[in-house]
Amino acid sequence: MTSQLAGGPLVQLTGVNKWFGELHVLQDIDLSIDRGEVVVVIGPSGSGKSTLCRTINRLESIQQGEIRIDGEKLPEEGKALARLRSDVGMVFQSFNLFAHKTILENVTLAPTRVRRQGKGQAEARARELLERVGVAHQADKYPAQLSGGQQQRVAIARALAMDPKVILFDEPTSALDPEMINEVLDVMTSLAREGMTMVVVTHEMGFARRAANRVVFMDGGRIVEAADPETFFTAPRSDRARDFLSKILNH
Q: What's the total number of domains in the chain?
């Protein structure tokens, strides 16, 4: 029975542990994410945020615990993993667009290959999505001809083209020049308002305050605390979160 029938969480991590050699990077992670929820994961560098994000579509494997997407256990490998992964969009720090393909081709590639959409249907949908993220006029260009902010908005359109159940954002603005950050965050904020389920690893506290339903604070591979943005930013419970916020909010 899927969680759609059961009304359970869309993403569920239970007792998740991961090691890189001796380093215990994720420690006993329990996290449930509901449909339409925007969860922003913050914390110091090396706290396990990106690793957590990347385990949700098994870009990183785990050694212990269980991850379920829409009630289905995340498979180890093979076609079942590819199928489930197509329901989980991913936007990376470094865009990961195909340099030798046009913007339109980048966005239509997965829907035609994985979802078996017809070329005409995929292109019409891609143009609609490029319009939505504000780069429709760039459809026939190549990634190198676009700014970083434009490339990242194309990457968001590419993720949306698969009609995912959830989109993971792994520090989507950290490779961008400061003036380009807001154009990407604005697109993400509008997606959040439209009810897209999102897991966002970011250093952008303004976005966390504005768009998150819940802020998850990590340190040392653990979830230290989780709360709604208002509570977290005005009255964090842990000394570690208070210390972290005092350092980043006073700059």
A: 1
